[in-house]
Automatic annotation (TrEMBL):
Signal peptide: none annotated. Keywords: Hydrolase, Iron, Metal-binding, Protein biosynthesis. It comes from the Bacteria. This is Peptide deformylase. Binds 1 Fe(2+) ion. The lineage of its organism: Bacteria, Bacillati, Bacillota, Bacilli, Lactobacillales. Its EC number is 3.5.1.88. Pfam families: Pep_deformylase (PF01327). Fe cation binds at C131, H174, H178. Removes the formyl group from the N-terminal Met of newly synthesized proteins. Requires at least a dipeptide for an efficient rate of reaction. N-terminal L-methionine is a prerequisite for activity but the enzyme has broad specificity at other positions. Its cofactor is Fe(2+). The active site is at E175. The keyword Membrane does not apply. Belongs to the polypeptide deformylase family.
Length: 204
Protein backbone atom coordinates (compact mmCIF):
# COMPACT_ATOMS: atom_id res chain seq x y z
CA UNK A 1 0.00 0.00 0.00
CA UNK A 2 1.38 3.42 -0.91
CA UNK A 3 1.85 6.13 1.70
CA UNK A 4 -1.07 8.16 0.40
CA UNK A 5 -3.36 5.12 0.31
CA UNK A 6 -2.57 4.51 3.97
CA UNK A 7 -3.04 8.15 4.96
CA UNK A 8 -6.40 8.46 3.22
CA UNK A 9 -7.99 5.30 4.63
CA UNK A 10 -11.26 6.27 6.34
CA UNK A 11 -10.14 5.22 9.83
CA UNK A 12 -6.66 6.72 9.60
CA UNK A 13 -5.80 9.73 11.71
CA UNK A 14 -2.53 11.46 10.96
CA UNK A 15 -0.10 11.19 13.86
CA UNK A 16 3.46 12.29 14.54
CA UNK A 17 4.86 9.03 13.13
CA UNK A 18 3.35 9.89 9.74
CA UNK A 19 5.43 13.06 9.63
CA UNK A 20 8.89 12.73 8.13
CA UNK A 21 11.79 14.62 9.67
CA UNK A 22 14.65 16.69 8.29
CA UNK A 23 17.16 14.56 6.45
CA UNK A 24 14.44 12.83 4.44
CA UNK A 25 14.96 13.78 0.78
CA UNK A 26 11.22 14.33 0.17
CA UNK A 27 11.53 17.52 2.25
CA UNK A 28 14.13 18.82 -0.21
CA UNK A 29 12.22 18.01 -3.39
CA UNK A 30 10.03 20.32 -5.43
CA UNK A 31 6.60 18.72 -5.09
CA UNK A 32 4.33 17.78 -8.01
CA UNK A 33 1.36 19.94 -8.95
CA UNK A 34 -1.96 18.24 -8.25
CA UNK A 35 -4.28 17.59 -11.18
CA UNK A 36 -7.53 19.50 -11.59
CA UNK A 37 -10.28 18.69 -11.13
CA UNK A 38 -9.04 17.38 -7.81
CA UNK A 39 -9.01 13.65 -7.21
CA UNK A 40 -11.02 12.21 -4.34
CA UNK A 41 -7.70 11.12 -2.82
CA UNK A 42 -6.25 14.65 -2.82
CA UNK A 43 -9.45 16.04 -1.28
CA UNK A 44 -9.42 13.41 1.48
CA UNK A 45 -5.73 13.97 2.17
CA UNK A 46 -6.39 17.69 2.60
CA UNK A 47 -9.22 16.97 5.04
CA UNK A 48 -6.99 14.63 7.05
CA UNK A 49 -4.27 17.27 7.19
CA UNK A 50 -6.70 19.87 8.52
CA UNK A 51 -8.05 17.34 11.02
CA UNK A 52 -4.51 16.67 12.24
CA UNK A 53 -3.97 20.38 12.88
CA UNK A 54 -7.27 20.62 14.74
CA UNK A 55 -6.41 17.59 16.91
CA UNK A 56 -2.91 18.92 17.54
CA UNK A 57 -4.35 22.18 18.92
CA UNK A 58 -6.93 20.44 21.11
CA UNK A 59 -5.88 20.75 24.77
CA UNK A 60 -7.17 17.23 25.54
CA UNK A 61 -6.80 15.27 22.29
CA UNK A 62 -3.43 16.75 21.35
CA UNK A 63 -1.49 15.45 24.36
CA UNK A 64 -3.52 12.22 24.37
CA UNK A 65 -2.50 11.51 20.77
CA UNK A 66 1.06 12.69 21.46
CA UNK A 67 0.82 15.51 18.92
CA UNK A 68 2.95 18.61 18.75
CA UNK A 69 0.65 21.58 18.22
CA UNK A 70 0.87 22.95 14.71
CA UNK A 71 -0.80 25.64 12.61
CA UNK A 72 0.31 24.38 9.22
CA UNK A 73 1.19 21.16 7.44
CA UNK A 74 2.37 20.46 3.90
CA UNK A 75 1.90 17.15 2.04
CA UNK A 76 5.68 16.60 1.59
CA UNK A 77 5.92 16.40 5.40
CA UNK A 78 3.83 13.24 5.07
CA UNK A 79 6.19 11.90 2.41
CA UNK A 80 3.65 12.80 -0.27
CA UNK A 81 5.36 15.01 -2.82
CA UNK A 82 2.29 16.95 -3.91
CA UNK A 83 1.56 20.68 -3.81
CA UNK A 84 -1.02 20.61 -1.00
CA UNK A 85 -0.88 22.62 2.22
CA UNK A 86 -3.26 22.99 5.16
CA UNK A 87 -3.36 25.96 7.54
CA UNK A 88 -5.40 26.32 10.70
CA UNK A 89 -4.85 29.58 12.54
CA UNK A 90 -6.99 30.09 15.64
CA UNK A 91 -8.03 33.59 16.62
CA UNK A 92 -6.93 34.66 20.11
CA UNK A 93 -9.33 35.11 23.00
CA UNK A 94 -10.44 38.68 23.59
CA UNK A 95 -8.95 40.83 26.35
CA UNK A 96 -11.44 39.42 28.88
CA UNK A 97 -10.57 35.83 28.07
CA UNK A 98 -13.75 35.16 26.08
CA UNK A 99 -13.55 32.93 23.01
CA UNK A 100 -13.27 34.85 19.72
CA UNK A 101 -16.36 35.37 17.55
CA UNK A 102 -14.68 33.61 14.66
CA UNK A 103 -12.73 30.56 15.85
CA UNK A 104 -10.18 30.76 13.04
CA UNK A 105 -8.40 33.59 11.27
CA UNK A 106 -7.52 31.14 8.52
CA UNK A 107 -8.77 27.59 7.97
CA UNK A 108 -7.99 26.29 4.53
CA UNK A 109 -6.56 23.54 2.40
CA UNK A 110 -4.71 25.05 -0.56
CA UNK A 111 -3.96 23.12 -3.73
CA UNK A 112 -1.11 24.29 -5.98
CA UNK A 113 -0.65 27.46 -3.88
CA UNK A 114 1.69 30.09 -5.26
CA UNK A 115 2.92 33.49 -4.07
CA UNK A 116 2.06 35.73 -7.04
CA UNK A 117 2.99 39.09 -5.50
CA UNK A 118 4.73 40.29 -2.36
CA UNK A 119 5.78 43.40 -0.49
CA UNK A 120 9.30 44.74 -0.61
CA UNK A 121 9.15 44.94 3.17
CA UNK A 122 10.33 41.86 5.00
CA UNK A 123 9.06 40.39 8.26
CA UNK A 124 10.04 37.77 10.78
CA UNK A 125 8.57 36.30 13.94
CA UNK A 126 10.33 37.70 16.98
CA UNK A 127 10.54 34.24 18.56
CA UNK A 128 11.65 32.49 15.37
CA UNK A 129 9.86 29.53 13.79
CA UNK A 130 9.43 25.85 14.47
CA UNK A 131 8.46 22.94 12.26
CA UNK A 132 6.83 19.57 12.86
CA UNK A 133 9.59 18.04 10.73
CA UNK A 134 12.37 19.57 12.83
CA UNK A 135 12.92 18.10 16.30
CA UNK A 136 15.23 20.83 17.53
CA UNK A 137 15.19 24.54 18.10
CA UNK A 138 16.82 26.66 15.43
CA UNK A 139 16.95 30.22 16.80
CA UNK A 140 16.98 33.27 14.57
CA UNK A 141 14.83 35.55 12.47
CA UNK A 142 13.33 33.70 9.50
CA UNK A 143 13.26 36.43 6.88
CA UNK A 144 10.03 36.44 4.85
CA UNK A 145 7.86 38.86 2.90
CA UNK A 146 5.71 41.03 5.18
CA UNK A 147 2.72 40.78 2.81
CA UNK A 148 1.92 38.26 0.11
CA UNK A 149 -0.76 37.60 -2.48
CA UNK A 150 -1.37 33.87 -2.88
CA UNK A 151 -3.25 32.06 -5.63
CA UNK A 152 -4.53 28.53 -5.02
CA UNK A 153 -7.40 26.16 -5.66
CA UNK A 154 -9.69 25.23 -2.79
CA UNK A 155 -11.18 21.79 -2.21
CA UNK A 156 -14.25 22.73 -4.25
CA UNK A 157 -11.90 23.31 -7.16
CA UNK A 158 -12.44 27.08 -7.20
CA UNK A 159 -9.51 29.35 -7.95
CA UNK A 160 -8.86 31.73 -5.06
CA UNK A 161 -6.65 34.76 -4.52
CA UNK A 162 -5.94 35.99 -0.99
CA UNK A 163 -3.86 38.79 0.44
CA UNK A 164 -2.14 38.02 3.71
CA UNK A 165 -0.11 39.95 6.23
CA UNK A 166 1.25 39.41 9.72
CA UNK A 167 1.32 35.92 11.20
CA UNK A 168 -0.97 34.49 8.49
CA UNK A 169 1.47 35.57 5.78
CA UNK A 170 4.37 33.97 7.67
CA UNK A 171 2.62 30.63 8.17
CA UNK A 172 1.47 30.34 4.56
CA UNK A 173 4.98 31.18 3.30
CA UNK A 174 6.44 28.52 5.63
CA UNK A 175 4.08 25.90 4.16
CA UNK A 176 4.59 26.97 0.54
CA UNK A 177 8.34 26.68 1.17
CA UNK A 178 7.79 23.00 2.02
CA UNK A 179 6.36 22.24 -1.41
CA UNK A 180 9.45 23.90 -2.89
CA UNK A 181 11.90 21.91 -0.77
CA UNK A 182 12.85 24.84 1.46
CA UNK A 183 13.24 24.57 5.25
CA UNK A 184 12.64 27.55 7.53
CA UNK A 185 16.24 27.70 8.70
CA UNK A 186 17.41 28.22 5.10
CA UNK A 187 16.07 31.77 5.58
CA UNK A 188 18.01 32.54 8.79
CA UNK A 189 21.23 34.49 8.42
CA UNK A 190 23.76 31.89 9.51
CA UNK A 191 26.43 34.43 10.46
CA UNK A 192 24.08 36.73 12.37
CA UNK A 193 20.76 34.96 13.14
CA UNK A 194 19.21 37.98 14.87
CA UNK A 195 20.47 40.61 12.45
CA UNK A 196 18.32 43.78 12.60
CA UNK A 197 17.94 44.35 8.89
CA UNK A 198 16.72 47.79 7.95
CA UNK A 199 12.93 47.88 7.54
CA UNK A 200 12.47 44.37 8.96
CA UNK A 201 9.09 44.06 10.62
CA UNK A 202 9.30 41.96 13.78
CA UNK A 203 6.06 40.18 14.65
CA UNK A 204 5.03 39.07 18.12
ZN1 LIG B 1 7.43 23.15 8.58
Amino acid sequence: MSVIEKLTKPAHQIKMEDIIREGNPTLRASAQEVDLPLSEQDIILGEKMLEFLKNSQDPVLGPKMGLRAGVGLAAPQLDVSRRIIAVLLPNPEDADGNPPQEAYALREVMYNPKVVAHSVQEAALMDGEGCLSVDREVPGYVIRHARVTVDYWNKEGQKKRIKLKGYEAIVVQHEIDHINGIMFYDRINEKDPFEQKEGLLLLK
